Amino acid sequence: MKFYSLNHPIPNTSFKEAVIAGIAPDKGLYFPESITPLPSDFFDSIEELSNHEIAFQAIRQFVSEDISDGDLKEILENTLDFDFPVVEIEENVATLELFHGPTMAFKDVGARFMANCLGYFSQNEKEEVTVLVATSGDTGGAVANGFLGVDGVNVVILYPSGKVSDIQEKQLTTLGQNIVAMEVDGTFDDCQRMVKAAFLDEEITDHRKLTSANSINVARWLPQLFYFLFAYKQAKSKGKEIVFSVPSGNFGNICAGMVAQKLGMPVQHFVASTNVNDVVPKFMQQGIYNPVPSIATISNAMDVGDPSNFVRIRHLYQDDLSTLQENLSSYAFTDDDTRAAMKEVYARTEYVMDPHGAVGYLGLKEYQKSKPNTYGIFLETAHPVKFLDVVEETLGVSPEIPAQIQKVMGKEKHSIKIKIYEDLKDYLLANN
Ligand SMILES: N[C@@H](CCOP(=O)(O)O)C(=O)O
């Protein structure tokens, strides 16, 4: 399997090269040259397969030229050692809990898979790799955890100062070793712009091998398709058409779900649910993609004004809006809507949704107004405890703090404050 750049569609890059580069030399995102559907008996008997077997069969075609079957199985065992339960909260509405991993957010799978792949590919390399990553909240902690202590890899995480939750900040600033956190005086989009500028900067790239651990990297993006297969395995017995509502920021997760659909998984429809950072809902209505600076919300991990992966989604549908609309709806919700949904669901079911999950729930309910007989699954992308203040204020309850969060809470934050791109550049040139 080769990958091509979305700016230059000639498939000439291996999985290994795409992972190590992160982004193509022409700055396009990498995309697989083909997506071959899995045999129908895979889906017929999915309930009998383990999550490891499902993941192996699903990802194998993308990586098999560079990773042997035995090594891939080992990487998947290291990556997937926690649960992904589908929890029904009302008739025809369930949530897929993606927060049972080490940093309690859905990013754990992609971050661990990529860290394992990069460690595997760097085994006999002399040159160190620097992983640059921009985070609006959850990616940073997952990448810090996944890459901690990986030989030959240094990680630099950029996050917007004051715009991530306290627990998210602890997760990405307290680990030390090969992990450095940079606190940017700006928004997530500024962080993402600085990271992309560094990739273009030959003064840096001549001296330092850079890659990305955001979902622009195929090794971070593609494993997210597992979630949808794990959910399908659990919901198949309902015998209904399945709709996924995905709280969306950088749009990597929902795009991976669409790859699972291309692999043959039966899905009736996708819903991209956003907070007021609504560039995609507007595009889906008006056909005009107009990125704008992001606005801070209580679902901060989705505060993205120019989602990196939407270009992959458009590509999957040959940039044809009406075909895309047949498979994707997109709705935006305010913080007031989000809090109201958290309250209403908690009062009725005692289920505590985090603000991102609540946005997913709202999008699903909106879609089901016209399709009430579908079986809807909204993704709970992070544990509510990561947004303790919002949950306490909104619901008046204090969720129990799990051990993996308690572990970082008492630790001291270490970050380097930066304002402009040159600050990042100086750091990368000086600390080589
Ligand atoms: N929601 C993200 C923003 C970056 O997204 P990614 O999937 O491209 O890493 C976050 O939590 O940081």
UniProtKB/TrEMBL annotation:
It comes from Flagellimonas iocasae. Pathway: Amino-acid biosynthesis; L-threonine biosynthesis; L-threonine from L-aspartate: step 5/5. The lineage of its organism: Bacteria, Pseudomonadati, Bacteroidota, Flavobacteriia, Flavobacteriales. It catalyses: O-phospho-L-homoserine + H2O = L-threonine + phosphate. Residues 3-79 form the Threonine synthase N-terminal domain. The keyword RNA-binding does not apply. GO terms for molecular function: threonine synthase activity. Pfam families: PALP, Thr_synth_N. It comes from the Bacteria. Its EC number is 4.2.3.1. Belongs to the threonine synthase family. InterPro entries: Ser/Thr_deHydtase_PyrdxlP-BS, Thr_synth_N, Thr_synth_N_sf, Thr_synthase-like, Threonine_Synthase, TrpB-like_PALP, TrpB-like_PALP_sf. NCBIfam families: thrC (TIGR00260). This is Threonine synthase. Its cofactor is pyridoxal 5'-phosphate. Residues 96-368 form the Tryptophan synthase beta chain-like PALP domain.
